[in-house]
Amino acid sequence: MRTRLFPFCLFLLALSAFTRAAEPYFEIIDSEENSLFGTITVLDRTQVVVDVQGMACTIPFEKLVKIRNIIPNPYTRGASSTHQYQNLLQQMPSALKSTIQGADKRQIVAAHVQKLQANEQAAQKTFPTNVIALELNDGSRLIASSFNVTNNQGIFRLLDQQTDSSLPLNTISAVRFAVRNLSEVLHPPTDWQRLAIPNTEGDRLIIGTPDSFDVYAGILHSLNTETISFAVDDEILPVPRRKVFGLVLHHESSLPNEPNEPPLGMVTLWTGTKGMIADIRLDTNELTWQTSSGFTTIVPLELVEEMDFGGKGGTYLVDCARVRSEFSLPLAAEITPEQFKLFQTFFENRTKESREVIMDGILYERGITLLGKTSLEYRLPQSFTSLRAVIGIEDQFRPYASARIQILADTQNLGTWELRGDTGSQRINLSLPQNCKLITIVTEPHPQLNGAIVLTIANAKLVE
After folding, report:
1. What is the DSSP letter of 432?
2. pTM to 2 decimal places
3. Do strands 55-60 and 64-69 pair parallel, antiparallel, or not at all (unpaired)?
4. In Å, what is the CA distance from 47 to each residue of 5, 39, 57, 106?
5. Where in the chain is the domain with CATH 2.30.30.100?
6. What's the fold here for domain 315-463?
7. How many CA atoms lie within 13 A of 192 on its CB side?
């Protein structure tokens, strides 16, 4: 994904970033998997314009895939992804390197990283306790500091906002109270996920804690900071709000209401708020966005973590159905202690198939690291014309790893590549046969090396 779009713009950004004032700047990714870094000056339903040291770079909206804030979440403390900037300078074409006029690249990187870390420290925030998570029918999630109900309207104040907003109750599917931290926002209890679906029989009142609660069916009348009025068997009960874990609201259908038009994408804020975007525009670093449910809000651009506009131009292979998965490992006696350590690292670090990987200092979000002799088969949901990917050895598994990879479309061999830990990754762009149904990836030992078989295929994208 990290090919370099407009390299001269990017070079100027890296060279000057440590002298500029702190401001929100983003990575912008297009449907060709090109990416650039810069400050957004224009964003609407037609285009995004990125200013990089006075040079405007434009991507049409129909080719826009993702906009991502490059500073880590200010509510969680974690290490920066500074490898992107280091790689930017290391990968500069020689013609651009000459314009540095003898400057030490390490000093440039160090100054830029220092500035980035200063920006992060300035942006650090403490996530408040007891926030409220509102779940809307269209799949949006709003994180609020307050929530009341009157006259069939939910009245709330989004976290980091100064004014109240409101929504009709029939657009809200569930409300979760006393969410203690950002982790609980992003990872609701399993029992809550089971309960928090549109309810056709009446409102549900959940009393207790995430670990132990009771569920009551009835009708919600009103809700304020102290009390919830909830009718059970024609008797209105005043329930202390501090005892309530959540509400699941009544809807005529168990299926969410379909919006008139499919959403443009999804915006995610650092607070955990996410909205399915029906409309969006940027005005002087303030982002106005509207959900498919009709909720509209304005937030400072610096509060935006990510805007995802979908997989334009294709589908990632890891999102397709895997129909076969086979692998075998060599015996410990057949490999060296260094190679055996690579296998140990793999099993200690790998908990899921699709994850972030780093090759040649570049971060890839969708990577499949294959261990040992492997055969994977994926069923394609529709017809595609080509397969693009990056293949290589993850940085942490070098230099001892090596492998040979073969990729097949149905029974047709699209190519065979031999990779080793002391060489860089490489991009592939393969044409698929018409009406291809299956993609098979096979790895086996490098024919000339006795290294541990570890190989990564990253951002494998099927293009229509």
Report:
1. P
2. 0.64
3. unpaired
4. 16, 14, 10, 36
5. 3-123
6. Jelly Rolls (2.60.120)
7. 26
CATH class of 3-123: mainly beta
CB 200 within 8 A of CB 252: yes
Predicted local confidence at residue 43, as pLDDT: 92
Q: Find the length of the chain.
A: 464
- CA–CA dist 190, 168 (Å, integer): 27
| Exposure b/e, 110-122, CB count within 10 A at least 16 = b | eebbebbeebbee
Low-confidence ranges of the chain (pLDDT < 70): 1-23, 33, 52-54, 72, 76-124, 198-199, 210, 252-261, 311-313, 329-336, 338-356, 447-452
pLDDT at position 133, please? 92
φ/ψ (deg, to 5) at 125: -135, 160
> Which residues are within 8 A (CB) of 139 and not within 5 positions of it... i.e. 6 or more apart?
256, 276, 292
DSSP helix/strand/coil, 11: helix
Tokens of 326: 């086979």
For residue 16, give Cα distances in angstroms to 35, 57, 67, 108: 19, 17, 21, 9
